[in-house]
Amino acid sequence: MAELPSLCALCLDVVKDQLLHDSDIIHEVYSFPPELFNCLLPRLSPLALQKLEDQMPDDFGSDCEPVTDKRKRKRNSIFDQSWRTLYMCRWPCLDSTTHGEEDKHKYESVDDWQQFYWESHIQSCLDAAAEISLLPSYSDRVSVRDLEIPDIILKYLFGKGHALDFMNDCKKLSWHCHKFGLYARSLRLRNVMCVAEICDLLRNSKLETLELRWMKAQEHVQGLCKLLFQINGSLTSIKFMHCKLSSGFLNSICNSLFIDSKTHGLQHFSITASSILEKDSCIPVGFTSFLSSGRSLSSLRLVDVGLRPNSARSIFSALIDASLVVSVLDLSDNNISGCFSNLRWIRGSFEDSSFGLGKSLQCLRILNLRNCNLQVSDANALKYALIHMPILEAIDLSDNPIEDEGIMSLFFFIKMSEQQFHLVDLKLANCELTCFGVNQLLGVLSTTIKPLNSLSIGGNDLGKNVGAPLGRLLCTGIKFLDLEDIGLGSPGFLDAKEEIKKTLEVVHINISKNRGGIGVAEFLSKLIKNAPSLISIDAGYNFMPVEAVPVISSCLKSVQGNLQHLDLTGNNFGGMSVLPEFHIKGKLVVNYDSSPPLNAPYDDEP
Ligand SMILES: *[C@@H]1O[C@H](CO)[C@@H](O)[C@H](O)[C@H]1NC(C)=O
Ligand SMILES: *[C@@H]1O[C@H](CO)[C@@H](O)[C@H](O)[C@H]1NC(C)=O
Ligand SMILES: *[C@@H]1O[C@H](CO)[C@@H](O)[C@H](O)[C@H]1NC(C)=O
């Protein structure tokens, strides 16, 4: 026989249902003894919880925790816990292994679960409404605000078993937006939602972050501009994806971002996987003035938007002339070879620092020019630009055929300029470099710049002779090293191993696809013993023979530290089992091809 519910549970269920209909009961609920109150909260549906919290008496909870700031009090309170639980019930991806880390990071930054719950709810409603309006059966005559929210969403709000038909209004998108829109700080809108009515739907929302998808038509751009006008005081970040923005559209959008005639408050502007500007034209005047009037603009991303040399040059020109403080500039995945020639800074020389150009670039910390089809000649021109970026910390030039000559020209120039440079993160994967160029580069870097924090030179055909210099580089305190597919071979790894003579600070190293054979095992055993901070190693596809297994197993036995991930897939262990031999303290996942379990965490602590 099923267990009978207690009398208390039955009463609380009655209270729970009453709360939705009858406001008088709220006062009674707040005078419940704490034990009873705490039993009731987890039973409440989002709507009931909202109603209860909206009418919280001023002195509630003040005897246990004398906090005057209501917001703070709420955050600490059991209400916040209840909102978190409701969120997790509705969007339960925290436990899934695939999103685990990402979600964990996202959830750690949540400081108000009530806000986060309703923001996510509004997003779900907008997404559902957009889906419906795309159905062939959808009639244009249905106004966006009257689009019906699916029952499955409503059930979450009212709780299980609740009759949904007593309030017809709540089926409409507008009811949700008007009631909970004030909690939305960050939203994603599809083109179809960017119509004139969106301003009314989001009239309560103080949006800070807005992401737009599939914007292509005049009608939607107009709707968006109205919305931007409405939220001009709160918006700090805007992002476009999969859009087609002509110069005219870009002009209108930029013009709508101004708070008054002179300034805008945007901090992040991003367009990705879209097409902007027809042919290879200069950027339109609206965008130029947007760039030159944003005192607060700190990141600009125009990634994979079909920029060509002239349009890219006009962006750089605008940045040179502007007095803003962009710290992140990302123009990756555009074919812009030639864009640095004829720029004004070419005429200035680094001895003449009073030239006054590139003021805005002086704050640049991160420059991403990955996959821009940059050649030797571009590197030759780019070096003059680097002079105007004295605090640049990270540069990504991967996937550009820059070659040894380009790289050496770039970095010898930096050395010659005798300026204080801060470059610590360097990505030069797939740049058609050779051992000669990389060895020269490592030499320059070790004399001019602070020790590198990270270096990526994967996908260059470097060969075994770079082994010893890389071993020495490891000893400089570098933390992240990507050496995938550089043809080190077994001798290269053995040379690198010989150079390891001290405690290393390396955290992540990627040495996959290097035909390293037994040399990898020898290298790893020295590395693991000497690098207590090491968290992950990717050593897959190295033709490691079966003889490598005992070498790796024995060094793993002595692991004390933080190592969490060791990838050994794609080696020739011939079915030999590595895992059972390991006796490891802490948490280590070893991936290798053999019998399962492949991804199971290996943890011998109870
Ligand atoms: C920004 O918004 C405020 C208030 O909504 C409005 O008064 C002002 O005209 C707007 N400015 C621009 C340039 O749109
Ligand atoms: C990049 O542009 C050049 C012409 O400027 C063209 O020859 C080349 O094919 C383009 N590369 C790609 C990957 O589109
Ligand atoms: C190793 O480097 C390659 C190329 O950069 C990358 O695709 C791969 O994800 C890296 N492996 C790890 C474990 O980071």
TrEMBL record:
Pfam families: LRR_1, LRR_6
Listed SUPFAM superfamilies: RNI-like
SMART domains on file: LRR_RI
InterPro entries referenced in this protein's UniProt entry, alphabetically: Leu-rich_rpt, LRR_dom_sf
Protein name: Uncharacterized protein
Protein species of origin: Lithospermum erythrorhizon (Purple gromwell)
